[in-house]
Specification:
360 residues; alpha/beta; Nucleotidyltransferase, domain 5; 7-stranded mixed beta sheet; 5-stranded mixed beta sheet; 22% strand; globular
Length: 360
């Protein structure tokens, strides 16, 4: 019989493609009774570039593509390394994998990662494939963090808005009566990272320095915000490359610093203009974007309430998504929903995840 509280390790490789985050929690999938160590294993430049190449190739890739399988194996071994770095015993691993394609309107979401290999190396059972059941049931398959956010924020005054700025940005609105509403708000660090790689030879715009040195092109910002995605109501979700062609067109001919400034303003405006049932009393920012001073200043200017990194609440913003997938792994084991109609648009609360291995 499954023990209610499980020691779980969550693994998350986000759309920023920078590496794998790992975190240990003890949870019953409803509450969190303990937090343990967290770690990040950064991908080397070759793996990062190969993963970025896989993103571009994904729409035409076959599941048994030799290059894809080779990259998947290398990526999975980096996840196993992250488990080893934690150095903490666990009952279960929550393995999100790497999203390479997200097209819920076509009934597709694709996360690569070899659960069998990960289980073999770590000698632990693995819960994986968290999103496909929701998409198959008519949901967006994203975001999946809202139930975890709600568990973390039980004692915080509501309404509360929690914004995760990864490669794509998403937000969770928590209401005073237990309401949970969520959606992707628009691009996050992804296009800024691509710009920094192209013009600086760096994986991201460290501290927002490039954006801070540029000027926003208001006409091009307006064109970006005219995208039909922003007229859709929540729930809604995006692929990492959904805005790529529009962003390329909107930044063409701009100096790199001005392009970065315009993209940063775009990310902030998309977050701030997302409608919710009531204004939040506080905005908490997690994900890599909270380290970008231009993004944080831009959000502070657009909201009339305090905007803080999640560390203000004593949370670990670098570990939060990994902690989430540890939490969701235990929810999956217990048959609890991973998504709700108001978080992904699925018709009814939806369970998900698949188990590789045996729970002892």
């Amino acid at each position: 019989m499954l023990n209610r509280f499980q020691k779980a390790i969550g693994l998350m490789s986000g759309t920023s493609l920078d590496g794998v985050d790992a975190a240990w929690v003890q949870t019953d999938g409803e509450t969190i009774s303990g937090f343990g160590p967290a770690a990040t294993v950064l991908y080397d430049d070759v793996l990062r570039a190969d993963l970025r190449r896989v993103l571009d190739m994904a729409p035409a890739l076959a599941p048994d593509d030799v290059f894809l399988r080779e990259v998947e194996g290398r990526m999975t071994r980096e996840h196993a390394l992250a488990v080893a770095v934690l150095g903490r015993a666990a009952d279960i691993i929550g393995f999100h994998g790497q999203t390479i394609l997200h097209a819920p309107e076509a009934g597709r979401t694709w996360q690569i990662g070899d659960a069998a290999l990960l289980s073999h190396i770590t000698r632990l059972p693995v819960v994986y494939d968290f999103r496909s059941a929701d998409v198959a049931a008519g949901g967006q398959g994203a975001p999946l963090v809202p139930l975890f956010h709600a568990a973390m924020a039980r004692e915080i005054e509501k309404p509360l808005l929690i914004v995760n700025i990864g490669g794509v940005a998403n937000a969770t609105w928590l209401g005073p009566e237990g309401e949970i509403i969520a959606c992707d708000t628009g691009p996050g660090n992804g296009p800024l990272d691509d710009l920094a790689q192209a013009h600086l030879g760096q994986p991201y715009d460290k501290d927002g320095a490039l954006a801070a040195s540029g000027c926003v092109d208001d006409a091009r910002l307006k064109a970006l915000l005219a995208h039909p995605f922003f007229a859709l109501s929540a729930p809604k979700s995006l692929d990492r490359l959904s805005f790529s062609s529009l962003i390329e067109q909107a930044t063409k001919g701009l100096a790199p610093a001005d392009a970065a400034a315009t993209l940063a303003a775009f990310i902030c405006a998309a977050i701030a203009q997302t409608p919710w049932p009531a204004p939040p009393k506080r905005v908490l920012i997690t994900g890599g974007g909270r380290h970008n001073a231009v993004l944080m200043a831009g959000l502070a200017a657009l909201f009339t309430v305090p905007v803080h990194p999640v560390e203000e609440m004593g949370w670990n913003g670098d570990a939060l998504e990994a902690q989430c997938f540890a939490f969701l792994a235990v929810r999956s084991l217990r048959g609890l929903p991973l998504s709700l109609p108001a978080t992904t648009g699925v018709a009814a609360p939806q369970t998900g995840g698949r188990l590789y291995g045996t729970i002892l």
